[in-house]
Amino acid sequence: MSTGPQAPVTASLQVGAQDDDLEKRLDDELTAFNATATGAGTPAPLSVRVTDSAGELVGGLTAWVWGSCCAVDMLWVREDQRHAGWGSRLLRAAEEESVRRGCTEVIVSSFTFQAPDFYRGHGYRETGRTDGIPGGHQDVHLHKTLGPAAR
């Protein structure tokens, strides 16, 4: 039971570089808060990997599934294999697995110098942009509804 605002504790503020312990703690705390606020549980990781006959990475996709939403974090294809269809296969595999896990939508963001047109070509629609990316670029936010009607 909360008793309202309390006096701040005496503490010190530290600014630094990467802090793995802090990142884990913040992730744990925010995940617990979000799960309670939404009832959607905790996010589950999703990954798709392509390797060549030598076992070298050709490309991959990482994402997370939370409730009915899948969020793509990263999609990458090795330079010598770009435009060979691997990106499309990775994305389709992630979408299919998302549907299998109960998702009805996917979200992703892509800088303007990356691949927003790739996602548009796969049925994603732009939902917004964020200015201020170095070099005068933007972060493009995209969304796709999944399911039989969307395919």
Overall average pLDDT: 94
Low-confidence stretches: none
Care to count the β-strands? Answer: 6
Q: How far from one another are the termini?
A: 48 Å
Annotation field: number of helices? 3
Radius of gyration, Cα only, in angstroms?
19 Å
Instruction: Work out the helicity level.
Output: 25-40%
Quaternary organisation of the protein chains: single chain
SS-based class: alpha+beta
Trace the largest sheet across and list its strands.
1-2-3-4-6-5
Major sheet description: 6 strands, mixed
Residue fraction in strands: 25-35%
Order of helices and strands: HEEEHEHEE
Please describe the topology of this protein.
Blueprint: H1 20-38, E1 44-51, E2 57-66, E3 69-77, H2 86-100, E4 105-111, H3 116-120, E5 125-133, E6 137-145
Parallel strand pairs: 3-4
Antiparallel strand pairs: 1-2, 2-3, 4-6, 5-6
Would you kindly provide a written description of the structure presented here, covering whatever features stand out?
The chain is of the alpha+beta class and about 150 residues long. The protein is built from three helices and six strands; from the N terminus they run H-E-E-E-H-E-H-E-E. The protein has helices spanning about 20-40, 85-100, 115-120, and strands at about 45-50, 55-65, 70-75, 105-110, 125-135, 135-145. Strand 3, helix 2 (about 85-100) and strand 4 form a beta-alpha-beta unit. The protein is globular, with a radius of gyration of 19 Å. The N and C termini lie far apart (about 50 Å).
